[in-house]
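Morning F.,

Quick status update on the modeling queue. The single chain you submitted on Monday has been processed. Sequence for confirmation:
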Amino acid sequence: MLEAYEKSVRELNAEITSLGIKIEQAIDKTWKALETMDVKLAEEVYRGDDEIDVMVKECMRKDLTISMMQSPVAADWRSLMATLKILSDLERIADHCADISHYVMHLEHANHHLPIPQGLKEMYGVMSSMVSDVLDFYKGKESSQAELMRDKDDIVDMAFNHLMEEISREITSDPEHSRDYISFVLIVKYIERMADHANNIAEWVIYRDKNELNI
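Structure tokens below.
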């Protein structure tokens, strides 16, 4: 029974690793689509969200099956519950990639060729590094550093506030393109939310490993 349980946990972790790779690829493609206003690439990310959703649901099903069919000890229960929460946050990160891609398509079809707000690339880069870090934390690599995610999240929050101010000024000075600027507002908000989800994952990793919960 113990061997079957451990085998099921290994299989689940392997599937979550594959899911993480897919999400990192989606994040990378989303930025490339945004930076170059590549509609074809944006459509690829948008369509690919369905595949990620299926992977998440399958991982959740396996996680719940392990919980019901086996007799895990307290630490195992903690890990299984944390995994379920982590999967939910990963799904939302992928959803926001699709959301951003939707607005990339809108901006390109508007054909106004507005420049990407200054500072957006740096904000996206910090968020992307947060997701990569938490996926490593989940796999047990340097999980003791998970607490430092809050610092990166603060950097993203500061960038968010700066970009909101900048975009507000652009809307005031160029009201003709206000709809396009509102699309950038939503994109910036999605990036900020992705960072929040990455920070949540780090908190769940800490809970799994140390039984400390700050969510």
